[in-house]
Specification:
alpha/beta; 21% strand; 5-stranded mixed beta sheet; 8 helices; single chain
């Protein structure tokens, strides 16, 4: 009898333990669901670190994105994105310099929340990342020594032309400068140094960035090429639709209240101003090109 009683007791204990285990698992599952919902509420944009935006950028692309003497990132794109981030409630914005050739991949694979570096929106790049609406358009420039005989695209035939790998300039040159030897660099600084030393004949870069090098090294804009078909946008990983919408809404607010115009005049003094980014009541008034 005692043995039977023990067996029944042991059986009841095992059943009770099993039921307790099921209840515990159910409670954990419910708790996990609640926690996930809370996390989503705290991080609606799916940022790597809630409340912080990690930005992949460039440290040598003046006046768009560059580091000053103290190592702090600044420039038109930096100030514009910081303003846009503040409008969606995020003041903690961390910029990190990258080589342009790997910047979009770093955003796509989740190393950064966004890429900000006057990145032209193209169909090829949209295979890798999503973009905000466009916020900047301009020109491409071939920069050379005043003593060079480079005066138009035909005169580039047989020349050694520098391009930064992965840029619009590289893509344009591959398509249009078929008789030119392209020399690829990781950044503008190294390419311009090659022009100054004479190891290449010219460098193909952005019009605004060329201004700084002209003053610093005595180079000149040999050729200016319109590039309005690929406006710059903020690059984000695919699937972050809520983040993209928030950035677009804030970006258009910055354009409509005149913030974009103020920053453009600060960083690009005297340059043609794209009409489509001005406040709606100023568009088509004839004071921009």
């Amino acid at each position: 009898m005692a043995r039977k009683s023990f067996r029944r007791t042991a059986g009841r204990t095992a059943i009770a333990a099993a039921i307790a285990g099921v209840l515990a698992l159910t409670a954990c599952a419910q708790g996990g669901t609640a926690s996930s919902g809370s996390d989503a509420d705290d991080n609606p944009y799916g940022l790597i670190t809630p409340g912080q935006i990690r930005v992949a950028s460039l440290g040598d692309s003046k006046p768009y994105t560059f580091t000053d003497e103290s190592g702090t990132f600044t420039g038109f794109d930096v100030e514009l994105f910081t303003d846009v981030a503040g409008r969606i409630g995020i003041d903690d914005v961390v910029f990190t310099g990258q080589d342009f050739s790997g910047l979009l991949a770093a955003v796509s694979n989740g190393q950064f929340d966004v890429g900000v570096a006057a990145i032209g929106i193209t169909e090829e790049r949209e295979k890798t990342v999503d973009f905000s609406d466009g916020y900047l358009a301009g020109y491409l420039t071939v920069m050379a020594s005043p003593d060079s005989d480079i005066t138009d695209e035909d005169s580039l035939a047989g020349k050694r032309l520098g391009v930064v790998q992965g840029t619009l300039q590289e893509a344009y040159a591959v398509k249009n400068f078929t008789d030119t030897e392209l020399v690829r660099f990781p950044d503008n600084n190294s390419a311009i140094s090659a022009v100054v030393s004479g190891s290449i004949d010219a460098h193909f870069l952005d019009y605004e960035a060329a201004k700084e090098y002209a003053d610093q090294y005595g180079l000149e804009n040999a050729i200016d090429i319109p590039s309005f078909d690929a406006p710059a946008g903020f690059a984000i990983a695919k699937g972050k639709d809520e983040f993209k919408k928030a950035l677009n809404d804030a970006l258009h607010e910055a354009m409509e209240d005149g913030t974009w115009k103020e920053l453009y005049e600060k960083w690009f003094p005297g340059s043609p101003m794209p009409d489509q980014y001005l406040p709606s009541d100023e568009q088509g008034d004839g004071d921009s090109e």
